[in-house]
């Protein structure tokens, strides 16, 4: 039965025993049908359950940071990562953009491409897939790719576990999972996690979260199944400040970040999230129906640059009505995946406030009318002050997709897919006051205004794969998709009289994949051309706005391989070469009458290192002793669009795991950055020469004990 086969595929994925990259891993993201990654006509990586457990993964960036072409870092060592795939997501000022995040087939990403990671419990995840580039039928309004989080199916996993961990910097972690088969056809599982970290080496960097999940599954008499998940998260994250060049030099000496001169000393994100989803599968002849419905409601308190966001009435509703049809073409097996999706994100009475407690200096403007105003030097708390803005919004995405996978010959596979979506923004705002970047003060806002804008988004892909031998495949693909601007980008541009268009990302790729019992490797060469690139620029007053002012060309080479040297020792390495340049881009330098526009044509994109590589060795003995060492290197990269200054990156930042497993017991020590390197997670320089650094965490270690029962 197809449903039973689907369940068995999930079990196979969750029980892979290779490290870092599986020697013959399975994908369920690229085609929505369980498929060997070797048979997928694009670059895709799978991080398996053993790797997640051995590395004691608690955050998404820790799981995928060594995948070539992926830039994953966190300035707060919490569930607030910066994720970039082949340059997509680089323009995000905060959070994750341009990348679709899914969990068990349910989208975690909002219609406008924003993802909140604070309600994903990584300790409940058994494997992670990363599908790179545009063109996926899963990726609605996301040109960077898809990250799929796969949890253990309630039907397959009946194990119980308790896990506790303690570490330096005040790290505490506890995770409990219990499950039971209530009857022949009824299954239930529950998990609860609590994690906290003080991060005393840096001011305003505390984090804690509590998460609970309840799952129920039922198998009907016709072998159809339904699986539901109910979860609740409460997360509190203080977000640390950036540093100037002088302050970063001090951090490099001491490993501590205290008393910085950054304006916004009290940024944070405190949230409460409740979510519910249900998935049904039923077989009718050669058709497998897979409808899904999902809902979440959330609230957050989020002080950021200039304003404090306080929003308590937010709801997301969605459905994905999918079917799989198995048939024959050219005398060989073929599969059609098709479906329709609908999702809406509704926010009622979201509020923004000025900071109540600030240190100011009264001054006269350097240009314009001589009206005194108060320059904000720095905040002294995140207490709410005067109401600055209210907003109601509804962002809706409706789409349809299909993908046909066929084999004209025994050794030839063709993937053809198309997805079409309509994205609608309906936003009503009353902006009473705003923060002005040029004067570093609050000023009168533009009052009431509305945004009603629609975008037609198209995504398509043609992939060709040829089986050179039983172990080696070669593929080529061309894929294209659109990315719409976010609501905040549309509002900032509209204020300047700019109407933002969607971007178009077109990717050309060729690759080679080999899977054997002792080694595997992937090679990919690609070129990604982006037109109508949405870029950040500054207006004459220094305020950040957005425009379709750029075109970029991203060329890259990615390699990764795993070698089973002996039964107990596995070695692996990955490498990425990224040649990302502006084809057409101008940015404003200076303020007011002194502002000029400077061409950046031919310059490299900032932040992306040209060379990035990692290596690992994993040792597992039959007597239960195990060890893993992983090291990563980022080469130098430009800090600014003008390419006037480089950051050296970092070399051989190394993580270590030592552990012992005996029957149901497991104890291990995980140390990240074991050599205690003091380096920048990111280094940037704006158009007017101001340098900004965000520190990476010094050495952090945790001892973890788990018992399976």
From TrEMBL:
Keywords: Cell outer membrane, Ion transport, Iron, Iron transport, Membrane, Receptor, Signal, TonB box, Transmembrane, Transmembrane beta strand, Transport. SUPFAM superfamilies: Porins. The keyword Membrane applies. Residues 1-18 form the signal peptide. Its main location: membrane. Residues 37-146 form the TonB-dependent receptor plug domain. GO terms for cellular component: cell outer membrane. Residues 204-674 form the TonB-dependent receptor-like beta-barrel domain. It is found in: Cell outer membrane. It is a multi-pass membrane protein. It holds the Pfam family TonB_dep_Rec_b-barrel. GO terms for molecular function: siderophore uptake transmembrane transporter activity. Belongs to the TonB-dependent receptor family. PANTHER family: FERRICHROME IRON RECEPTOR-RELATED, FERRICHROME OUTER MEMBRANE TRANSPORTER_PHAGE RECEPTOR. This is TonB-dependent receptor. It comes from Sulfurimonas aquatica.
């Amino acid at each position: 039965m197809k449903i039973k086969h689907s369940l068995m595929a999930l079990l196979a994925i969750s029980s892979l025993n290779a490290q870092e990259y599986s020697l013959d891993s399975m994908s369920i993201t690229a085609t929505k049908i369980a498929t060997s990654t070797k048979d997928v006509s694009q670059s895709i990586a799978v991080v398996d359950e053993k790797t997640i457990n051995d590395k004691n993964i608690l955050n998404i960036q820790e799981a995928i940071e060594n995948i070539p072409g992926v830039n994953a870092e966190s300035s707060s060592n919490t569930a607030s990562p910066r994720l970039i795939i082949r340059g997509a997501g680089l323009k995000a000022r905060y959070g994750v953009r341009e990348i679709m995040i899914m969990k068990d087939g349910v989208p975690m990403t909002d219609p406008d491409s924003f993802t909140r990671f604070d309600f994903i419990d990584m300790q409940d995840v058994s494997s992670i897939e990363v599908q790179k580039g545009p063109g996926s039928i899963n990726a609605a309004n996301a040109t960077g790719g898809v990250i799929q989080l796969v949890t253990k199916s309630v039907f397959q996993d009946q194990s119980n576990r308790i896990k506790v961990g303690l570490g330096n910097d005040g790290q505490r972690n506890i995770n409990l999972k219990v499950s039971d088969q209530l009857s022949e056809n009824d299954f239930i599982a529950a998990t609860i996690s609590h994690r906290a970290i003080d991060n005393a080496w840096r001011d305003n960097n505390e984090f804690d979260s509590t998460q609970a999940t309840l799952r129920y599954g039922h198998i009907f008499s016709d072998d159809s199944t339904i699986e539901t998940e109910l979860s609740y998260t409460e997360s509190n994250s203080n977000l640390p400040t950036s540093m100037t060049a002088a302050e970063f030099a001090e951090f490099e000496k001491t490993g501590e970040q205290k008393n910085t001169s950054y304006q916004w000393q009290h940024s944070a994100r405190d949230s409460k999230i409740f979510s519910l989803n249900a998935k049904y599968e039923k077989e009718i002849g050669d058709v497998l129906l897979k409808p899904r419905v999902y809902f979440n409601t959330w609230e957050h308190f989020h002080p950021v640059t200039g304003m404090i966001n306080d929003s308590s009435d937010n709801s997301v509703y969605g459905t994905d009505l999918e079917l799989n049809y198995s048939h024959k073409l050219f005398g060989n097996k073929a599969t059609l995946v098709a479906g329709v999706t609908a999702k809406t994100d509704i926010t009622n009475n979201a509020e923004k406030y000025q900071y109540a407690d600030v240190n100011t200096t009264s001054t006269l403007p350097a240009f314009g009318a001589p009206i005194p105003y108060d320059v904000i030097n720095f905040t002294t708390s995140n207490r709410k002050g005067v109401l600055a803005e209210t907003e109601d919004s509804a962002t809706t995405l409706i789409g349809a997709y299909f993908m046909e996978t066929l084999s004209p010959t025994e050794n030839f596979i063709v993937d053809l897919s198309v997805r079409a979506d309509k994205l609608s923004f309906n936003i009503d705002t009353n902006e009473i006051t705003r923060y002005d970047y040029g004067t570093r003060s609050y000023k009168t806002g533009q009052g009431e205004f509305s945004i009603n804008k629609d975008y037609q988004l198209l995504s398509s892909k043609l992939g060709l794969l040829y089986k050179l031998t039983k172990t080696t495949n070669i593929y080529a693909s061309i894929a294209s998709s659109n990315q719409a601007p976010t609501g905040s980008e549309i509002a900032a541009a509209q204020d300047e009289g700019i109407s933002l268009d969607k971007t178009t990302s077109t990717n050309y790729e060729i690759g080679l994949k080999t899977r054997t019992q002792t080694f595997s490797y992937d090679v990919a060469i690609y070129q990604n051309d982006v037109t109508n690139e949405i870029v950040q620029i500054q207006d004459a007053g220094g305020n950040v706005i957005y425009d379709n002012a750029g075109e970029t060309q991203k060329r890259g080479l990615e390699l990764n391989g795993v070698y089973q040297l002996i039964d107990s020792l596995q070695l692996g390495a990955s490498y990425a070469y990224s040649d990302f340049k502006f084809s057409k881009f101008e940015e404003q330098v200076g303020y007011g009458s002194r502002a000029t526009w400077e061409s950046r044509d031919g310059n490299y994109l900032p932040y992306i290192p040209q060379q990035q590589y990692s290596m690992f060795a994993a040792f597992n003995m039959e007597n239960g002793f195990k060890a893993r060492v992983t090291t990563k290197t980022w080469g130098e990269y430009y800090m600014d669009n003008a390419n006037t200054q480089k950051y050296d990156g970092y070399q051989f930042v190394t993580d270590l795991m030592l552990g012992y497993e005996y029957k149901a017991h497991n104890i291990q020590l995980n140390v990240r950055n074991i050599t205690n390197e003091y380096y920048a997670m990111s280094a940037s320089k704006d158009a007017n020469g101001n340098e900004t650094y965000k520190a990476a965490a010094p050495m952090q270690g945790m001892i973890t004990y788990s018992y399976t029962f």
